[in-house]
Amino acid sequence: AAPTRLVRNRQRIRQGQLQRKVQQLQEELHGLRLKRQRLRLTEKTNTSPWAVVSEIFRLLETSFHSPWHMTSVEEMMKHAETRQSLRVLQKSFTHDESMGSVTGTNALLEQLRRYALYFSDPQIQLKRVESMAPGVLTASARLSVTVSEFTLRCVFPHLESTNSSDADAAADEYRVLREKLLGQRLSCSCEMTLLLDGESDRVVRLETSINLVESLFRVLGSPGDVVDVLQQALMTPECLVGDVNAA
Description:
Layout: H1 2-42, H2 49-65, H3 73-76, H4 80-92, E1 93-99, E2 102-103, H5 105-118, E3 120-133, E4 136-146, H6 149-154, H7 166-169, H8 175-181, E5 185-196, E6 203-210, H9 212-220, H10 223-230
Parallel strand pairs: 1-6
Antiparallel strand pairs: 1-2, 3-4, 4-5, 5-6
Organism: Phytophthora rubi
Keywords: Coiled coil
Protein name: Bzip transcription factor
C-alpha cells in the first residue's frame, strides 16, 4: 500500500507541476500577443492621411445611401463595402481613437448609424482637404439632411407636442417651429479635423464641426427660434447626436 501511495503522490506532484507550467506558458503567450498587438498598432501605417480622409467619406456615402443597413452596428458589419472601409480605417487609426466624448470604432460607427437613421436622405460632398500643420489634416464638406418626424423625436424631442387635444393646441409653444422645420432640407457646411500621431501617422482623434446654426437660421429666420431649437437638442457641441451615454 505504501508504494502505491508514493506513486500517487508523485503523480499528483507531477500533475501540479504540469498545470503550473501550462498556466505559465499561457500567460507568456498572452503577453506575446499583447506585445504584438501594441507593435502592430504603433507601427507606421502605409496609408496616407489623404487616403484616410477619402476612405472616411466613402464610408459615409455608403452608409447614407443604404440606411436599411444601419439598424445596428452588427448589421453594418455584415456588408462588404462597410467592412472594406473599416479594414482600411482600422489600420490607419489608433485602437483608442476618439471623437468628442466617445471613444473606439464601435462608438464612431454608432454615431454614423444615428445620422443615417435620424435624418432623411443624408448626403455629404467633400469639398477640399488641407494640411493645416504637421500632424493636422482638415477636410471641408457640405452635409445635406431633411428634417423628418423621426428627426424631431430623436434629435429635437423638446419640440414634439405633448398634448393632442384641440384645447391644448394653443398652449403648444413649439407648434410653429415644428411646422417650419418638418420637411426642410438643411444644407450645412462641415469640417472634419484629423489629428495624427507623430511617429506612426495613425489618427488619434477625429474632430467634427457642423454649422447647423447657419442652415437653421435660413429656414427659421430668427436667432431666437434657432436658440429654441438647439438649446435642448440631443446634440453635443462635437455634433454627436442622440443619447451619447448609450453610444
